[in-house]
Amino acid sequence: MIAIVRPSILSGTIQAPASKSSMQRALAAALLRKGTSVIRNPGHSNDDKAAMEIVRNLGAEIIVNSDKLIVKSNGVAPNVSTINCGESGLGIRMFAPIIALSNTEITVNGEGSLLNRPMNFFDTFFPGLGVDIKSNNGKLPLKIKGPIQPKNIEVDGSLSSQFITGLLLAYSSSLNFPENRDKSSAKRSNEDQGNLKVTIKVRHLKSKPYIGLTLDVMKQFGMNIPENRGYEEFIFHNTYTNNSSLAGKEVLYIVESDWSGGAFLLVAGAIAGPVTVKGLDLTSPQGDKKIIDALVDANAGIAIEAKGIKVRPAEMKSFEFDATDCPDLFPPLVALAASCRGTSIITGVHRLTNKESDRAAALKEEFGKMGVDILIDGDKMKICGTEKVNAAKVHSHHDHRIAMATAVAALKAEGETIIESAEAINKSYPDFFWHLKKLGADVSLPFKKFKI
Q1: Looking at the domain 3-17+257-444, which fold is it?
Q2: Peptide bond preceding 17: is omega within 30 degrees of 0, i.e. cis?
Q3: What separation in angstroms does the CA of 117 have from each of 87, 88, 327, 353?
Q4: Quick one: which of 88, 96, 273, 325 has the fewest CB in 10 Å?
């Protein structure tokens, strides 16, 4: 699909999209607890749909009812032999340890760029936890057969915080829910179970805020959360105390609005606004809320109001930002930096290699077509702002965030910008172009009608 974006002036108020990070974690937690869970403000991105299908295939019933999902579950009980994670990196990394709760062999596959992303950490860690694992030379498909037997483990957190999220959820379900404990602990003696304490040690943790989000979701679903020692040790005890009052009761969870998607709207406001973005919680554990810091440092016109965050154009200057813990901010930050005076520096380039694209190279290539010079210097990305962004034909590299970043920058380009493979936005924010259009952007999608 091709999207065409022309120079525009934006004005209005828009609701930020639902967070797929929050949504997918909520679906996993709803699967693991026995009973009924209600998830409000659900997302409808491709990654959200993939997570819903995984949860159904692992035995839960999901009823779609207007603005909510009703999830009924008796725990992990696979009803298929093959599970497809779509293109969701979080989906495969988080759900693999959950799939390993079962003693049924499951083949786990994916689509698109996910087929080329490394999965060798499963080969490394699963055998030590009693899980049979076969991969395709460290890539998909995987064959997984549990049940997982939680043990003391040390994990390199620079590999993937998403895998640690999966371990936390699987350990909690296996060790701390009384109805599940006998499944994974069958080989432990009664004495061992009486003194049960299992620790996940984490070295060099990246994306710490996402682990904070995981722990928050676990708490809201009544799961027994581990003792957290500075995000370096997570200690599970065999006492079921945290929010155990929720056992057997219906849980209500409201999916947060997404700071990752909202960041593009906020930057669009700074470039071509004024725009007010509703629904973004400043107290959220999501790390991408740091986009506010970057906007302030860039001297964007920004105000926190009762109805939302209002951003308007101003004479913006270059900024420096460390995106190591929030690498998904790189694309909107590049779009922001393109309109700033001077050279902006973003740190954390090493976090971009195993995304939907080689994101650093893709940003350099596509923004280069738009007249924005980008230099990769080790772990730093240097973006030279320009007074004139060129209209160009660019490509998303099948990466949703590249498509959105080039679209936002195109709002101030001189002429018509054509974005190829723009359907990549469906992975996280399918309403993105509709929302820009609602704010007044001159956007067209051939053969696609907007519903405003």
Answers
A1: UDP-n-acetylglucosamine1-carboxyvinyl-transferase; Chain (3.65.10)
A2: no
A3: 10, 11, 17, 10
A4: 325
Catalytic residue (choose from 47, 48, 288, 328)? 328
Find all residues with CB under 8 Å of 320, minimum gap 6, and list them: 297, 344, 345, 346, 347
pLDDT at 416 over 70: yes
Task: Express each pLDDT in 279-317 by its tens digit.
Answer: 999 999 999 999 999 999 999 999 999 999 999 999 999
Q: Tens of pLDDT along 201-239? A: 999 998 899 999 999 999 999 998 999 999 999 999 876
Domain with CATH 3.65.10.10 in the chain: 3-17+257-444, 20-254
* CATH number of the domain located at residue range(s) 20-254 in this protein: 3.65.10.10
DSSP per position, 35-87: EEEEEES---SHHHHHHHHHHHHTT-EEEEETTEEEEEESS-----SEEE-TT
What amino acid is encoded at 217 in this protein? V
